[in-house]
Amino acid sequence: MSNYYIADLHLFHKNVCKEGSDFDGRPFDTLEEMHNTIKERWNSVVTGADHVYILGDLAWKENENSIAFISTLKGNKHLILGNHDKCKDQRYKQLFVDIQNYKEIKDVYNGKEYHLVLTHFPIAFWNHQHHYMRNGKEHEVWAIQLYGHVHGSIEEDMFQKFIFDLNEKYDIKCKAINVGCMLHDYTPKTLSELIERK
């Protein structure tokens, strides 16, 4: 069993592809093409035993079509609410193990347990953010932030510059990773894949 992470799928949102305004610059002419790619890539890596943490903005419309599509995606799905997630339909809610605004979990990378802070919106400061104490010793508990929302935009560049400055300019070691699908081949990724890509 593995954990996977992904955000900002924007299913049934035509403006993320060339069928609409293409504000996201995705390489898809139609929603159908995007949906087929996402489903194929998702189900090629995720098994029924795996857990997938979806960090917001899963679907533009929560109707019969989105319910039917999401039900074909493998794994135990956990939804961290984004600004486009309404979750008012009980049939839609039943697709998920849990639905929360914010979540903290543990995962393993290279045999070591890591704490993760899962949120849709990138946050400047989070629980257990600092890797090292002022005396240079490693904290027993420190957390990596996983987030979405900003896609591959100027806001992402600004946020990552802030994280870089904390690390390099102020020697405050911390890590935050954008798990937006457009940055990761429209495929859910493990913590190992996310860390090693950075």
Structural notes for this entry:
By secondary structure, the protein is α/β, with parallel strands linked by helices. 24% of the residues lie in helices and 20% in strands. The chain is built from 5 helices and 8 strands, in the order βαβαβαββββαβα. It has helices spanning 31-45, 64-70, 90-93, 154-168, 191-197; strands at 3-6, 51-54, 76-80, 98-100, 102-109, 112-119, 143-147, 176-178. The strands form 2 sheets. The protein has a 4-stranded parallel beta sheet, with no helix packed on it. A 4-stranded mixed beta sheet has the order 5-6-7-8. The chain starts with a strand and ends with a helix. The mean pLDDT is 95.
List its salient traits.
alpha/beta; four-stranded parallel beta sheet; 5 helices; about 200 residues
Could you give a quick summary of the protein structure above?
The chain has helices spanning about 30-45, 65-70, 90-95, 155-170, 190-195, and strands at about 5, 50-55, 75-80, 100, 100-110, 110-120, 145, 175-180.
List segments where confidence is low: pLDDT < 50 over at least 5 consecutive residues.
Answer: none
The DSSP helix count reads 5
* Overall average residue pLDDT: 95
Tell me the span between the first and last alpha carbons. Answer: 24 Å
Say what oligomer this is. single chain
What is the helix content?
10-25%
Radius of gyration: 17 Å
Which H/E pattern describes the elements?
Answer: EHEHEHEEEEHEH
Extended strand count? 8
Q: What's the main sheet like?
A: 4 strands, parallel
Which structural class best describes the helix and strand composition?
alpha/beta
What is the topology, as strand order, of the major beta sheet? 1-2-3-4
